[in-house]
Amino acid sequence: MVLEIMMAVSLVVGSYPWVLPGWLSLVVASAVGCWGVLVTLRYWRKTAVAPRPKSSVPVIFGVRTALPGLYRRIVGVMSGDLSARDRLRDAAIESFARRGFGATVREIAADAGVTAGLITHHFGSRARLRTECDTEVLRRIQAINEDGLRRSPEQQLAMIGEIDAQGSTMSYALRLVRDGGPASRDFLERMVADSLGYLEAAVAAGVVKPSRDAATRARYLVATQFGGLLLYAELLGLDLADGPALVRRIAAETAFTALELYTNGLLANRSLLDQYLANQEEETVT
What we know:
This protein is mainly alpha-helical. It has helices at about 1-15, 20-50, 70-80, 80-100, 105-110, 115-125, 125-150, 155-160, 165-180, 180-205, 215-235, 245-265, 270-285; strands spanning about 60, 65. It folds into 2 domains: about 1-80, no CATH class; about 135-285, Tetracycline Repressor, domain 2 (Orthogonal Bundle). The protein has 13 helices and 2 strands. The chain is elongated, with a radius of gyration of 28 Å.
């Protein structure tokens, strides 16, 4: 009712200059209009606290707003509901990890115990939700690697005992890599860039040996690690849907071998590497 009155006043004052002097009518109409926008936004915010099951977009004067995207952005900023949004995103990561990327918004909503409209309200579309899940999984992997650099060897080994908590993250990442496509390539490129940063920090800390070609080493490690994990999952008959079981089994199968190989190396001497470098120098000269 308040909004209807303000709209009527604004229309009357702005349309009929005989009510007030010309310049003053414009000023009053503008002021009333701004007031109406502010009150409308507050009204939208209240309706967004508990979205209706049929739609998360409010109805004003019996007409559903034609600006749902703008509405979602404004309400998100005003209500400070980022924590709720993060919880929905994390629930979506769990669903995608378990069901695969064919999971629908309704299935994700059912897993999260919310309505599909609430997910649409926060993310706008399933594609946008997927993009934000990709970014969060990458951030989690970054956090694990950065945390590992700060830990002692004893603490790093203790991280294996905490690996169950990263089951959905690992399952999601492996599904993303296995599915291929632009999203997969973008994820891997970002992983390579991040890995290069970790390795440079580890070299500076004296934990990892330097490389003649640090960038190519980072790319090789990311490719072999994700490729190796997918092959292990296939060889062991592991289901990507069961993240905790997946990471436990692979860690048990590979931890010692990986540590031994990375620590002691594989070749007994460097004669093969020296010959390769000599050949490269000859090709460069010729």
